Amino acid sequence: MVRRAPVTASPMVSVEEAVRLMHKEGVGSVVIVSPEGRVLGIFTERDLVKLVGEGKPLTSKIGDVMTRDPVTVFEDDAITKAVTIMAERRIRHLPVTDREGRLKGVISARDIATAFGKYLEELGEISE
User: Fold this and answer.
1) 3-state DSSP helix/strand/coil percent for the chain, to nearest 5?
2) Is the C-alpha dihedral spanning 21, 23, 25, 30 positive or negative?
3) pLDDT at 104 exceeding the cut of 70
4) How many helices and strands, by DSSP H and E, does the chain display?
5) Which of 21, 27, 41, 117 could form a disulfide with 66 if both were Cys (CB 3.0 to 4.6 A apart)?
6) Is CATH 3.10.580.10 what the domain over 8-127 is classified as, yes or no?
């Protein structure tokens, strides 16, 4: 389900740097990782809206404003688990890790919608 390498940043980069990276990479989130690649947090478009709405500066360190210890799924979990978590928690980006907590990817709501659309297309071809 993970379609591309995740976009990551150090907790020491500024919000402005992280947002520029998100824009450049065309993604809605950046995962904040330790030097060992373990997930520390996530920063999403929603976090940016909250930050600006609260009047916090874009020069803030991303580690100070990220969502800490985000919910994750393991790379060998069923996609249904990811979909359930995302629906229940109303989140659009879900980090995927190995059993040691190292980031392997991010599943987005868009990834799931695209996969589901392809599945429905295939069903249509089969039933014709």
Assistant:
1) 40, 25, 35
2) positive
3) yes
4) 5, 7
5) 41
6) yes
